[in-house]
Amino acid sequence: MAYIKGQDKPTGDGPDDGCPFCAAPRRADEDALIVARGEHAYAVLNLYPYNSGHLMAVPYRHVADYPELTEAETLEVARFTQQAMRVIRSVMGPHGFNLGINQGAVAGAGIAAHLHQHVVPRWGGDTNFMPIVGHTRVLPELLADARRELAAAWTAAG
Q1: 116 is annotated as an active-site residue
Q2: pLDDT exceeds 80 at position 8
Q3: Domains in the chain, start-ordered, CATH in brackets?
Q4: How far is CA 98 from CA 20, 34, 41, 107, 134, in A?
Q5: Among residues 40, 54, 114, 116, which one is catalytic?
Q6: pLDDT category, 158, cuts 50, 70, 90?
Q7: pLDDT tens, 110-122?
Q8: Could you give the 3-state DSSP secondary structure of residue 91?
């Protein structure tokens, strides 16, 4: 409900308008749920996940449109997406993944002003009556615990 009601959503389109993707790298990894940091991008758990392990590869630079990424940013976001899949597989053993970038609010971007690539692990039967009837999601582990496990596996994988 916090997400639906707009809690912690940016007040505008600029990097100084409360963008959580601009603010996260200025915080401690544990507090911001950051799994790994690179030169041009970072991996962070989604605060409002679809499934356990749902993370995002995010460029540090506040940019909305995929074609606006530099070559280095594009490469690192892609590499972080690949590494996220490897790490999530090793830690959580999903059966598949949804990957995606929602471009614009009309396309489903909750924070359209700062591009981010979703990496959502999927398991057979992970959609049940709770989200449909109860309008809620059930996650079997705390975000802080998932961050700790994934960050350790990311570091171990190099």
Answers
A1: yes
A2: no
A3: 20-157 (3.30.428.10)
A4: 22, 20, 20, 16, 23
A5: 116
A6: confident
A7: 899 999 999 999 9
A8: helix
